[in-house]
Amino acid sequence: MTVMTETLPQALGSARAGDTPIREFKMPDVGEGLTEAEILKWYVQPGDTVTDGQVVCEVETAKAAVELPIPYDGVVHELRFPEGTTVDVGQVIISVDVAPGSGPAPASGETEAAAPAAPAAPAAPAEGGEPEGRQPVLVGYGVSQSSTKRRARKGAEAASVPSQESAPEGTYYSSPAAAAVQAELNGHSAPAAPAAPAAPAAPAAPAAPAGARPLAKPPVRKLAKDLGVDLATVTPSGPDGVITREDVHAAVAAVSAPATEAPAAPVSRETTPAAQAPVQELAVASGARETRIPVKGVRKATAAAMVDSAFTAPHVTEFVTVDVTRTMKLVEELKSDKDMQGLRVNPLLLIAKALLVAIKRNPDVNASWDDAAQEIVLKHYVNLGIAAATPRGLIVPNIKDAHDKTLPELASALGELVSTAREGKTTPAAMQGGTVTITNVGVFGVDTGTPILNPGESAILAVGAIKLQPWVHKGKVKPRQVMTLALSFDHRLVDGELGSKVLADIAAILEQPKRLITWA
């Protein structure tokens, strides 16, 4: 994703002392209050010519990967940090000579020595710009006025350790074993993995033209970085010269295969869990017994949030098993409804609608705990979070004001949310402000679980697998579609009675979906 700049260049950088035409670009707050980001990739080098709006680097925050555009025209003077470095928000990461040849520029060593000596001074606001005391940034509320310091990376070896996260692009959850279950639950066929081109015995991929940036989506760039593949050496097979995940895997196979052996077979996405993790395969092939993965980015933020939630909010989880045969029939009917044509219609859609109706009937469940003010904050809106596993880790984007949406509108928003997450384009703003969440563990074939609350939310609903089971229906044992739901809630906000009412309402709607009409 590319962060668009709407502010003046003067608000984003500062000129050096004197008349030297050097502009400095600082690490912006690309989310709401984030404090640091890791530089994943530089797309320019000193001496390269850049234009206003050109993407110069890709960074990863605790929320997502973001491409940063430069707000100046000129020539790159200096890159302050190498790839793999974690940089605090507000630190200068690149300087640009906006008038090359017009004046002397300080030596590189001089600037490097000055950088850690003192925190970067805030830019002087342009006329009519930001008031003193707050430094403008690309997105968010601005950076702290406290001094920033560079947090050194653990070492070059840590930066080179590959990640095991290699979930196929296009899966809503990362488990390959759950592909068939997910297809059934989501109401669409699981996409077949395109065959990777046969890898030659020795790498013979033509290098990209000098200065040209290889075309690839952010998840593919992350995969290439984890596997140590230079995208400039990869032969693209996608439309318009776009590099795909299969191209990266083929490049890895080409390098690792001995010249005397046949080319390695393309990595399968749908066979076994081992095939899902090419990093593990490479480690085993080289005789390694362990693989160490740096905890950073989305995974680091998720771990911190879950620990904080688990040891801050007193969790209670309740369960209910419900006959959803009528709901499954309604899903099939809605697929042929003219008002739902072209929309994603699956059980998750009706489960989401049932949860929204239950919240409407029991509004006190939609709240948060303000510890600082010692207040309970009742929300009169529902931002419905949907947990999604991506190659970068678990993220929870949410549908804003889901309570106001009709069923077709909710289906459209849900489809857009899933597609965006698959493409790795979920923005930090889309993952903030959630009030209640659904996590669909049923795609793994799991009956249910005890989910941990997202910080700031009062409830999370775990959706189990839908299975054909013997069920007592109208006094007779019959095969019925059955599923188990689990509702975890913050016991400071939600007592047993309220939690039970919410879960019972959801179950009643899914058992008799006609209640959606009368209760909504």
Automatic annotation (TrEMBL):
Top EC class, one word: transferase
Needed co-factor(s): (R)-lipoate
Family: Belongs to the 2-oxoacid dehydrogenase family.
Domain Peripheral subunit-binding (PSBD): 215-252
Keyword Transmembrane on entry: no
Keyword Transmembrane in annotation: no
Record-listed E.C. numbers: 2.3.1.-
Record-given protein name: Dihydrolipoamide acetyltransferase component of pyruvate dehydrogenase complex
GO cellular component: cytoplasm
GO molecular function, one term: acetyltransferase activity
UniProt-annotated stretches for the region Disordered: 102-173, 190-216
Keywords: Acyltransferase, Lipoyl, Pyruvate, Transferase
Domain Lipoyl-binding: start-end pairs: 22-97
Low complexity bias (residue ranges): 104-128, 190-215
